Amino acid sequence: MSLIIVVTPYKRDDFKVYPIRDEGSPLFVGVLSLQRTDKGMRPLRIRVVREKEDEYLPVPSFVDLLKAASAIMAASMDPAREAALDSMLEAYQLGSNKVNVCRFCLLEDRITFKRPDMVRYKDELICMDCAKKELKREVSYKGRITKAGLDRLESLLVKTKDLGRIIALLTPSNLPPELTRFDIIPASPDRVKAVRVGDLDLEPRLKQALSMDELLPVQAKSVQAGLLKGESQLVVSATATGKTLIGEMAGVNNLLRGKGKMLFLVPLVALANQKYEQFKKRYGQLAKVSIRVGTSRIALNSLKMNVNLGSDIIVGTYEALDFVLRKGERGPGVEPLKNIGTVVIDEVHMLEDEERGHRLDGMIARLRACAPGAQFIFLSATIGNPKEIAKHLHARLVEYEHRPVPLERHLIFAGAHEKNRLIEEYATREYSKTSSKGFHGQTIVFTNSRKKCHQISQSLRIQSAPYHAGLTYVQRKSVEDRFGKGELKVVVTTAALAAGVDFPASQVIFESLTMGREWLSVSEFQQMQGRAGRPDYHDLGRVVILADPEFDLSGETEEEVAFRILGGGAEHVNVLYDEPEQMEECLANACIASTEADIRRTNEATLGISSDTKYLIDRCVDKGLMIRENGRVRNTPLGRAIATHFLKVEDAFLIRDRVYKKARPLDIAVELEPFDAAYFRNAERLSRILGVNVPSRAFSPASLDIVFSGESIAKMDRSLQAQFTDFAREFLDCVCEDAPFCGCPERKFSKKIVEYRLQGKDPRGISRAIAADYDLSAFDGDILGYLDRLTRNLDAIGEIARILNKHEAARDAKALAQQIEDAE
Question: Residue 599 pLDDT more than 50?
Answer without folding.
Answer: yes
